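Supplementary Note 3. Input sequence used for the single-chain structure prediction.
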Amino acid sequence: MLIELRIRNFAVLEDLAMALEPGLSVVSGETGAGKSIVVNALEVLLGGRASSAVVRTGAARAIVEGVADIEGLAEVAAVLEELGMEADDHLVVFRREVRREGRSRAWVNGSPVTASVLRRIGSLLVDIHGQHEHQRLLSADFQREVLDAFGGCRELADRVAGAYRRAADLEHRLEELEERRRELASRADFIRFRLGEIRGAKVRPGEDEELRIEARRLANADLLARETLALQTLLHSGDEAVTDRLSRAAALLRRRSETDPALAPHAAALEDAYHRVADAAAELAAYGGAIDHDPARLEELQERQAVLQALMRKYGPTLAAVIETGEALARELDELETGALDAATLRGRLDRARAEWRSAAEDLSKRRRRAARSLSDRAQAIFPGLGLAGSRFVVEFEELPAPAAHGLERIRFLATMNPGFPPGPLARIASGGELSRVMLALKSVLAGIDDLPTLVFDEIDAGIGGVVAASVGERLVEVARARQVVAITHLARIAAHAATHFAVEKRTVDGAAATRLRRLDADERVREIARMLGGDPDSESSLSHARALLGSAAPEPPVETETDLQ
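The predicted structure, written as discrete structure tokens, is reproduced below.
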């Protein structure tokens, strides 16, 4: 539960702190004093939308901090452990800063987190029922969630949704596969023809370059033979051949090196050059003698080159592209031939997923219908005490024409506020005040089921008064027996039931509005109840009336301490 809330520079709130207790706490104050701003700040702290407009005039940033005790809340502890955080003494400290310039920032136990992390943890700790929250009651999704929470069907509903998503995914994949198969089937003959052309040519990587080199050699066979013979003659076998000259020069240097040893390396270099040139001449002679004058082979090569050129014009600018095209066509053909097997496998998996969804959805429907009868009975039992005597509450099931993620049917809450009239949709039947009380009745029913430790009601008393207000207060006390409840109210008959009473007061500081919050002691509380009753808080008759109201409400005794936080 929440044990502390501090708000600084948020709207008209300059510096406000609340030490919260178990049971029912109320916050009262004049209209416009800033009671609901406390709830708005709490929403921001728990991951709600943070606008720079909430920063108090003259301040650079708004800060909201809170401390929660999570002892016994295993789900919250599991989330913290998943995030790598620890809760010393079972305490979790939240902090949210909203800057006038720039983005907001958030921390949990000193570690920076995103707003989504705040929402995730906050959703397990606090349920805020704002001034317009009763409008959620008109949402089909919310109505279904209420019924599932009451009937203990959340886990089963998640299974139904999971099976539906799996089936939808498999159906989508099967449709894509079938579409692909139809596309390939329509061009299967074309694919086979093109693949046959490429495979029939028996193309080898690099073959085009090999053919080009061999064809050029054959086309220039006579020229190569003549020139290699001429070179061999020049180097070794002709008059004044290079080898003869190198031999004479080497011999001359070898003799002179006997006189000057410095010439010996040069003699050795010339001898090496002689052997190199002689070897080159021998290789040229062998090359020239091996040249094949084969016109038939040249024609064969040119024909093969023409085949490859035609393939490259058709399937790619290079021979490598032609080979890659052939591989891609082979894959497409294989995909077409094996697609039927894949489709059969997918159909089997889809059938199983649909069967799983159907089984879970039918089970969910049965459990929902049992829960609906009990929810209706228990909500209607609370209605008279909330000024809704004679009202009826019904949960209607409308079968859906096609499978859905949330089950077999659409769920609607129907009601009639007047005896003798048939139930109808809440949006047509109930006023805003009546919707608020229907919501309170449902929250009361869920109080013993939902494990959220803190409920916050912002002006749940809209549109009611008198005896009904007293009944709403009693109902809030009943809900507060199982959890912490904080109620923002302007009705004395509700405030009188609180165990702890805070008052919000607005004043002007340096020409700017500022709000402070005080925890009231017994005497201050009597004066505040007198004010809320519309009397003079200094009048003995008003104070006497307030004491009588407090006595009749008989709330749990408040802690007799004062907290002035301004």
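Residues 555-566 have pLDDT under 50 and may be disordered. The longest strand covers residues 392-404.
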